[in-house]
Amino acid sequence: MYRFLRSILFLFPAEFIHKLVAGILRLAYVIPPVRAVIRACYSVRDPLLEREFCGIKLAHPVGLAAGFDKNATLYSAFSMLGFAFIEIGTVTPVGQAGNPKPRLFRIVQDEALINRMGFNNEGADVIVKRLKKAHPAGLVIGGNIGKNTQTPNSEAVTDYLYCFDALYPYVDYITVNVSCPNVAGLSALQNPEILRDILTAIVKHRNRQIERKPVLLKISPDLSILYLDDILQIVEELGIDGIVAVNTTTQRTGLTIGKDRIEAIGKGGMSGKPLKLPALETINYIRQRTKGKLPVIGTGGVMSPEDATRLLNAGATLVQVYSGFIYHGPSLVKKINKELLKIIING
Ligand SMILES: Cc1cc2nc3c(=O)[nH]c(=O)nc-3n(C[C@H](O)[C@H](O)[C@H](O)COP(=O)(O)O)c2cc1C
Known about the structure:
binds flavin mononucleotide; alpha/beta; eight-stranded parallel beta barrel; about 15% strand; 13 helices; single chain; TIM Barrel; three-stranded antiparallel β-sheet; about 350 residues
């Protein structure tokens, strides 16, 4: 069914379809009988699927990755589709348009996406107003924060703190995004010395809050082992609660399309099926290195229940999907959970 719908949706530019589908879902959400039917189709509830992540209770381990609901306009509607958690953002202090279009490309034969969106979002103040209005029961909301493109890296900490302070009261956890390859120079913030400054400042702010909420760090799959080791050390020292692994990659490994097409698409972060292995390897490494003590949300190339199971077995407590949702539709969430239930019940 979704395959047929997909063949029509994929005739149109990716960003246009994103907006269209978002609009349809928002409309469906405000009509109670339609909402009830959709919810009944997609929701999965079973005590065996429940999870706890850094003290947060979740109905099951499958969520929507950052970047889909950049402006917090969709999370309520998406709660109908059975996601246990949704990470909104990346949010920057001031709204920004992002990079020029086209900036999102499908590579259907490889079930991949390449994007160079560049943190397009409406800015923290507008987004917080929306978060204040609604928090659907049972849905866990993460807030993914970044810096404005115009802000030099030397002042990045001010941007992260602005977004942190703005979002913290209205989300269940915060993800610090220093790993997006589509904002010039942002990945350099993963440099251990700079990262330490940003995370130290954030932890200080977190420690002033009455309620302690988890702070996570989202990392790139393109980090060298040396950098990753340093980052894990900083994370441990500062008491960062967990890792979101991984963001999109600048590599083009795993694509079967020709060089010409790759070059024509140009720069951007790749996600989807070719990201499966880098995500798995990163999560495996984190588990080995931290002896399984550091909680991980696994994201990258979850296109099927088997992919989700692999990331969970590698050490992730939760998984997030993005490209898998585009290529396989909303039923992917239910399919993953059914498979997990089967595994739990059959031992
Ligand atoms: C179009 C697009 C936009 C994205 N925007 C963000 C973002 O704003 N912040 C972020 O942390 N990750 C962003 N991501 C990365 C995803 O959250 C996720 O880490 C990545 O796509 C890997 O998962 P996947 O293979 O299931 O797509 C984006 C991904 C895509 C495809």
